[in-house]
Amino acid sequence: MSTAGLAHAEDQQLRRENALDALAGIVPASQREALAALLTNEDVATLKHLAEQGMGANTLRALASDLGYLEGWALAATGRPLPWPGPEGLALKFIAHHLWDPAKRELEPSHGMPTLVRRQLKAAGLLRTDQPHAPATVRRRLASWTILHRWRGINAIFTTPAFKTALRLAVRASTRPKQRKSQNAVTRDVLDKLLATCARNSLADIRDRALLLTAFASGGRRRSELASLSIGQIEPCSPVPADPQDPRSAKLPCLAIQLGRTKRANADATNPVLLIGRPAEALTAWLERAGITAGAVFRAIDRWGHVRHSPITGDGINDVVKRRCRQAGLDPSLFSAHGLRSGYLTQAAQDGVSLVEAMQQSQHRSMQQAANYYNESAHQRGKAARLYSS
Question: DSSP for 14-48?
Answer without folding.
Answer: HHHHHHHHHHBTTB-HHHHHHHHHH--HHHHHHHH
